[in-house]
Structure of 7128_t:CDS:1:
Amino acid sequence: MSSSHQTISDEHAHIYREYFRALLNKEGILCDENMVAIYGSLKFILCCQWREKNPIGAAEIQTFNHSLSSQHHGGIGVYVTPTGYSQGAIKEAMNSSTKILLCTDKDIIECIKLTEANFKKIHPLNYDDVVIEGLNFERGEIKSIRKITMKQRAFVPY
């Protein structure tokens, strides 16, 4: 590959990343220069791969998964490309040790927002949702609890 072609490809990749940073920030998804985005209570690590043709293969997803598992604990990987994904790449993402979303440039915002909305449905509880009444301790351990109220539902343990 000639160096001028490589320079054009690098420039496209940079423009592609910067486009997504601007798009995400405009949509209220805070994205820094390292392509780490925060939306709601979730952290997303983005890999924006510019290609004019050919889908992303399993090897690229394996490399991304390795990077996520070794450097970004607790984040959700988001791979973005305009050309789509091979069956091998899809299987690799589904079987990965970390959560990886496979998106195109047309659905990245929806993918991130739906993931965060689904996370809220799965993990809806926060400390403001819980009221514990009649908590008694004996020698540093809980002796009894009279009542636990969670979002207008009551649970009486005894």
Remarks:
- The CA atoms of residues 89 and 142 lie 50 Å apart.
- DSSP finds four helices and ten strands in the chain.
